[in-house]
Fold each of these.
Amino acid sequence: MSLSPEEIERYARHLVLREIGGPGQQKLKSARVLVIGAGGLGAPLLQYLAAAGVGVIAIVDNDTVSLSNLQRQIIHDTKGIGRPKVESAREAIGRLNPHVRVEPHALRLTQENARALISGYDVVADGSDNFATRYLVSDACFFERKPLVTAAVGGFDASLTTLRPFEAGPDGKPNPTYRCLFPEAPPPGTAPSCEEAGILGALAGVVGAMMALEVVREIVGFGESLVGRLLLIDTLAMRLETLRYGWDPDNPLNGATSPR
């Protein structure tokens, strides 16, 4: 896809980066990205993907904007209270970058619709707020062979990683799955919700922006991805740490005895 004169000016700071340049910007323009959730993580993620010039951005969210969202979900505003988040986000993206096409999906992901929806996109970014959805999305991305950028935030801490378990690493072993990192969800009631535990609004912005960076990396291809690495963020100590994790041969998706 060629860039128009207006797009060349809009993306000028990308175009002078040797690691992106014209070919990388064209990849962004032709890319189709699916974002799960238009909440705390999805809000900054969607804005930076739109600003970066991703050609098609799909949004999955069945919730409406509430006043308590606005402390961190900065793609929405006070006038949008009560509106579907996918529509509020779609309008905000349109104001930011008219070259981006938004595909809103005002629905909840289920076992019945996840794979069909995910199959239509190049990269998936999961900003959901519960383990059930994270496992559902990661499994569907494995079977549909789609790269997944996934993150989670707590009150003052967060984590971020990228998954490509349908491919092998340099050592010839399969890349790890989400289930290699977290074999089982925590028991019900042990992981407090955002409403119960609270969340630092700016932390969601930081992590959502990092997710956008990783999505752009997956599309363009530069530097070292977070495949097999878990980025941990502790804002109380203002510390970032990266842990390596590997393939678990007992995992049910691409384990040693699992059907592939």
Amino acid sequence: MRVALPLVLLLALGACDRQQPGEPVSRSEIGGKALDTPSPAPSASEKPTPQRASACEAVEFEGVQLTHCVADPAKHRIRTALSPKDGAPYRSFAALAKALGSETSRVAFAMNGGMFDGEGKPIGYYVQNGERLHELNTAEGDGNFHMLPNGVFFGTGAKWRVMATPQFYATVGDRPKFGTQSGPMLVIDGKLHPEIQDDGPSIRIRNGVGVDAKGRAHFVISEMPLSFGKFARYFRDELKTPNALYLDGSVSALWDPAANRRDSGASIGPILLVEDKE
């Protein structure tokens, strides 16, 4: 004879079989150790819809997990975003999303896009909507930005390029629609930056961008700390981008609405925004 189980026990057994929902995380780095902390729940407008596929995918390279996002000039447009007109820098994707309002429906993805000062303002060349807000920085100094040559990611319309700063200075006369300077260059004309070791001691969460022969922009963010050399090799060997630029480390962040991901944590500066074409 079968004995009916009490209703409370049945509910408890059913709960054990369910996968508990996870929380999106933001990553910061303290003393070289990556830390995961819960991010705020996304708004309803950010939740993925069945009709939209993410432009990003999870990949693995030399034992490291990465997220690789592709901006296709046939489908997307790219622009820089720093602050509302005459306002303070956004410093986060949440603030940018609030400013965009209903226009967030066009966001394919976004990444932090270049190095900045304590106020979140760019320290190198920066163009937004065709307006130059900071001139090209050719100074020498300390830090990753001054690991020369650094470079510029820029473009107008459907033509996007990554170029080392000396070449940009010598050859680019017309102001692009968008542009951001960062450093160091990861790959220069198919070769790794001369000062980048194969697998050096600097291990960080990192993000960068490169453009392939078809004109597609490849944005990559690591999901765990890795060296400059390993990061650069991914662009050179896997993505086949003849030129690639380091965008930043430790503060690296991704906003991918279709995947319900919006990293938060450390304040960021300039933002590279990839949107669907209308």
Amino acid sequence: MTVRLSPLFGPRELRRIGHQVRQARERERMTQNQLANAAGLSPRAIRELEAGRSNPALATMVAVVDSLGLTLDELVEVARSEPPQPDVTRAADLGDGVTPLVRTLQDPRMASRIVTPSDPAASIPHPANPVFYHVLKGSVSVDVDGETIKLRRGDSLHIDAGVEGAWRPDGGDSQVLVVEAVRTNGAASQD
């Protein structure tokens, strides 16, 4: 008889366990293939487990946690803990300046914020990380390696890491969504 986790946990708990396995694997600087080899599983089994789409056997989970230096108790505790609350940013909270959109995630991979420049003449340098700009309101001029690109409401632009330049509002009523890739150490650069 194979004992599976699903009778004890629903889909949400299985996703949370998968998320914890992924975080532990990344902390150990292991790839999915490396974890699969260490646990004697297929890479697909690890992908499905981390995505919360699998119904792992107890023996599978023991092999995974042993390979990561964890215990089943640690994963079960996380799965049964209170689910995280959503991070809501109300429209009324969007004033002048920079409004971070993610404040409660413990280990975000992206830093997102809405920037409402109070000085229409101010130039805001591009971060060192890859960045995505989306104009929510008004228009902006973006300098990219000596070329100026004008973006209007609804336009978007992706810039790779290390591109020199800056952006500035065209007029006093601009608002830009800035989504920046976070560095591997968990810190993002700021505007």
